[in-house]
Amino acid sequence: MPNHFSHPAAILRSIQVRKRWEKVFIVVGVFSLFIALATLVLLVSDLLIRGWPMLNWRFFTSPPSSDPEEAGILIAWVGSLLVIFVTALVAVPLGIAAGIYLEEYAPKNWLLDFIEINITNLAGVPSIIYGLLALGFFVYILNWGESILTAGFTLALLILPIVIVTTRESLRAIPQGIREAAYAVGASRWQVIADHVLPYSMGGILTGIIVGISRAIGETAPLITIGALTFITFLPDSPLTTQFPYISFNWVWAPFTVLPIQMFNWVSRPQDAFQINAAAAGIVLLVLTLGVNALAIYLRYRFRKSIKW
């Protein structure tokens, strides 16, 4: 039986059909991208128009209040920074260390495959599950209470799978020849990892950290589950003191709130003035997220530049 596509005219028609579908796909893709970007621009523009007039020194330095004209985000942005600091302090070193061990040291067997599957699945678990886990373990078993420490460890658990998976993928992307060349001149396994593999993979690792921290900054469900306050009028204790050793860790046990929860509290109020306050807090949260991302991107650039030179 002759092949229908063996005739030159049939082949030409088939190519023309494929090109038409390719053009249709490009048009649909560009249109979808335009709709997504237009929606984002409209939402951010509305946020800026409504919230910008509220962004003044009083708004940043005032605690929450029942009067929308006097309410501010001092407690919320300080709480967000402290919680994210604890989160990064726990998740980043643990995630990178776990990724290095699983990729470079762990024996390749069924147990490693089982761990890989579970870590990948944990990256997609809803955040409320982590909140329930933290409520049972950190709050009730360890008796940490509704504190900044509990919140930091909760969000650290949330982003830990992301950091681990990204670290492993970044290490795996490094050519095997770099490792073999280092081994050939007598380097130990740790010297190979610390001096050669990690510097080259740090860009990808920092990308995973950016994604994880950005997700943690905007989370509300796990923090509400562990007892984050929606209305609090006092700051935690200062981490610096005037007496030796000049450092205090009492702030980690303090109750807290964060910017997303403060926004939720204002949005639930019926007064229009609180809606404007929520929009202003949204701008601050957006800038805070972009600032963390910019810092991580700058660090990634510095790592890559140091390798190049």
TrEMBL record:
<feature type="transmembrane region" description="Helical">
    <location>
        <begin position="197"/>
        <end position="214"/>
    </location>
</feature>
<comment type="similarity">
    <text>Belongs to the binding-protein-dependent transport system permease family. CysTW subfamily.</text>
</comment>
<dbReference type="InterPro" id="IPR000515">
    <property type="entry name" value="MetI-like"/>
</dbReference>
<keyword id="KW-1003">Cell membrane</keyword>
<feature type="transmembrane region" description="Helical">
    <location>
        <begin position="248"/>
        <end position="267"/>
    </location>
</feature>
<keyword id="KW-0472">Membrane</keyword>
<feature type="transmembrane region" description="Helical">
    <location>
        <begin position="279"/>
        <end position="299"/>
    </location>
</feature>
<dbReference type="GO" id="GO:0005886">
    <property type="term" value="C:plasma membrane"/>
</dbReference>
<feature type="transmembrane region" description="Helical">
    <location>
        <begin position="24"/>
        <end position="52"/>
    </location>
</feature>
<feature type="transmembrane region" description="Helical">
    <location>
        <begin position="122"/>
        <end position="142"/>
    </location>
</feature>
<dbReference type="GO" id="GO:0005315">
    <property type="term" value="F:phosphate transmembrane transporter activity"/>
</dbReference>
<feature type="transmembrane region" description="Helical">
    <location>
        <begin position="220"/>
        <end position="236"/>
    </location>
</feature>
<protein>
    <recommendedName>
        <fullName>Phosphate transport system permease protein PstA</fullName>
    </recommendedName>
</protein>
<keyword id="KW-1133">Transmembrane helix</keyword>
<dbReference type="InterPro" id="IPR035906">
    <property type="entry name" value="MetI-like_sf"/>
</dbReference>
<feature type="transmembrane region" description="Helical">
    <location>
        <begin position="148"/>
        <end position="166"/>
    </location>
</feature>
<keyword id="KW-0813">Transport</keyword>
<keyword id="KW-0812">Transmembrane</keyword>
<dbReference type="GO" id="GO:0035435">
    <property type="term" value="P:phosphate ion transmembrane transport"/>
</dbReference>
<feature type="transmembrane region" description="Helical">
    <location>
        <begin position="72"/>
        <end position="102"/>
    </location>
</feature>
<dbReference type="Pfam" id="PF00528">
    <property type="entry name" value="BPD_transp_1"/>
</dbReference>
<dbReference type="InterPro" id="IPR005672">
    <property type="entry name" value="Phosphate_PstA"/>
</dbReference>
<feature type="domain" description="ABC transmembrane type-1">
    <location>
        <begin position="77"/>
        <end position="296"/>
    </location>
</feature>
